[in-house]
Structure formats: C-alpha cells, structure tokens
Amino acid sequence: MNLLIAGCGDLGTELGLLAAAAGHRVHGLRRSPELLPEPIVGLPGDLTRPLAGLPSDTDLLVYAAAPGERTPAAYRETYVDGPERVLSALDVAGARVERVLFVASTAVYGVADGSWVDETTPTEPTSTTGPLLVEAERRLWGRRPDAISLRLAGVYGPGRTRLVDQVREGRAVIPEPPVHTNRMHRDDAARAILHLLTSVDEPATCYLGVDDDPADRGEVLRFLADELGVPHPPTGPDQRSRGGDKRCRNDRLRGTGFTLEYPTYREGYRAILAGRGVRHP
Ligand SMILES: NC(=O)c1ccc[n+]([C@@H]2O[C@H](COP(=O)([O-])OP(=O)(O)OC[C@H]3O[C@@H](n4cnc5c(N)ncnc54)[C@H](OP(=O)(O)O)[C@@H]3O)[C@@H](O)[C@H]2O)c1
C-alpha cells in the first residue's frame, strides 16, 4: 500500500518506519522534509497553504501535524483547514484514498471529575483550543464519513523528558486533591495507527488512543522518583494548565485485537530511562 503521512514529525516518522518495514511505500509531508530518514520519501509542503503534487497512488492517508503554538488560530489552520487541503490536493491528483486517519486528542473531552470516558462520551471541551479539535473532526467526517479519528492522550516516549526532568530537578508537585492522567507511548501510538489502517476490516470512526492505566499523577511522580533515586515530590495545588481529571478507556481499540507494548507508564518510563529509542526530529 502507499501511505502518505501529512505532518510527519516524531509520531509520523515512527509510523513511517514501521509501515516501510511492513512493506508499504511511505511519503512524509512537512515543511522540512530533508529531516526524514530513509526509506520515507520526503515531500515538501506547508499544510496552511494550498498543496500540489501529492502522490496519485496514495491508498492510505494519516494526518499527524501539530501546530507550532497553542492558539485557536494555529489550531484552526492546522487541524480544521489542513486536512481539507490535503484531501483536496489528493482529489486533484486523482488519488483514490481507501482509508483516512486523523490523529486527534482526548482534549475533546472536558471531563474534570475523575469519571470514565470512552468514545461515546459527549465532546464538551473546556479549553480554548479544544473546540477546534471537535470542529476538526466534524469537518473531516463531513467530507469523509469513514475517516478514523484516533484521540490520543498525552504522548510520551524517547526524548520527551519534561516530567522526568521535573522530578529529577525537584520541581514536580504531587497534586492535592489527586488527579488522573492518561497517556500513550509514542511507539504504541504508531503501532495503533498502522493496525487501524491495515489490520482492521471495518474500523469504527473513533478510537481512544490510551494505555491501560489512567493513573493518579502522584503515583506516576512517586514511581519516577523511586526509579531515579530522588526524594518523592511534595504535595500542593495541581501545576498543570490542562488535562482535566478523567479516566480514558481503551476497550474499543483493544477490541480490534491491538496489543500494547507499554501497557502502563511503568513499562514506558522504564524503557525511556533505559535510553531505548530516539525522538525523531
Ligand atoms: N504530544 C501529545 O501529547 C499529543 C497528544 C494528543 C495528540 N497529539 C497529536 O499527535 C500528532 C503528532 O505529534 P508529534 O508528537 O509527532 O508532533 P511533532 O513531532 O511536532 O510533529 C508534527 C509535525 O507536523 C509538521 N507540521 C507542523 N506544521 C506544519 C505545516 N504547516 N505544514 C506541514 N507540516 C507541518 C512538523 O514538521 P515541519 O516543521 O517540518 O513542517 C512536524 O514534523 C499531532 O497531531 C498532535 O497534535 C499529540
């Protein structure tokens, strides 16, 4: 199959390498295509401007761009308008795209009382950018009713050391009252995308991309402190500016036969602390 990854950064590159190893031909579109490793074929393109010259033999499209800043205007350009530009350019090229997957976010949910969330939970975001993510999905489904939206929780993985650094440097605070946090290791996110594109006969139009453990943030911080051999962080008011307090279920994704390499933060962070993998530029 011929896979086009629009917005081919860390997650996209990991997906591209995985797909190429499985025998697919992969194009990666971004403004700096020279950063992409072989065998991903780099395509120069800016998703905020009209696009041309996309491969006419594209079978599978993944949209995995991330905006440069967390503003409603940047979110609109990247998430709402960007996918339409890619689909229009593929139409012009004469491509007959079989499957479209949009990398979305659990930020579409505004839940903040620690309750469970799944694909049927109403999308009522409370952040300023969340409504743009909801609009992005609606617009995409308006054009491609069969498009798959994979709503990822916080992506962590090689080189993403913000939380580890906070604990190591004594800057972390265990929230009081406690909050649940949800995450997905980058490698599992890439594996889930390839799985939904190529191994599921009739995929649903929406999946939560989270691991098995919507853990208490304090538990994660204490685990990291123990692994690093530093004192447990003190407790205090929640330092995070977003994320709410929700527990995301992955039953629908798991129901497709998908298995996680990093089912919880423990396996994932141990691999990161052991230096396994690299963050792609
Ligand atoms: N990080 C998280 O916790 C999280 C959570 C939920 C969902 N997600 C989603 O996961 C996806 C992948 O994230 P990631 O970690 O792989 O991000 P990343 O490493 O920053 O990659 C994003 C890529 O998008 C490209 N891009 C951005 N603006 C572009 C534009 N105007 N035209 C063309 N390409 C553009 C960038 O390349 P150039 O600069 O070369 O153009 C970059 O390679 C994103 O959709 C993100 O929103 C992330």
Question: Could you characterize the architecture of this molecule?
Answer:
The protein has 281 residues and is α/β, with parallel strands linked by helices. The chain has a domain at 2-158 and 182-212 and 249-255: NAD(P)-binding Rossmann-like Domain (Rossmann fold, 3-Layer(aba) Sandwich), CATH 3.40.50.720. 33% of the residues lie in helices and 17% in strands. It has helices at residues 10-21, 72-93, 130-143, 162-168, 186-198, 217-228, 251-254, 265-273; strands at 2-6, 25-30, 41-44, 60-63, 99-105, 116-117, 148-152, 154-156, 174-175, 183-185, 206-209, 235-236, 247-248. The strands form 4 sheets. Strands 3-2-1-4-5-7-11 form a 7-stranded parallel β-sheet, with helices on both faces. The longest helix has 22 residues, at 72-93. The mean pLDDT is 97. It binds NADP nicotinamide-adenine-dinucleotide phosphate. Residues 7-12, 30-32, 45-48, 64-66, 78, 103, 105, 152, 154-155 line the site of NADP nicotinamide-adenine-dinucleotide phosphate.
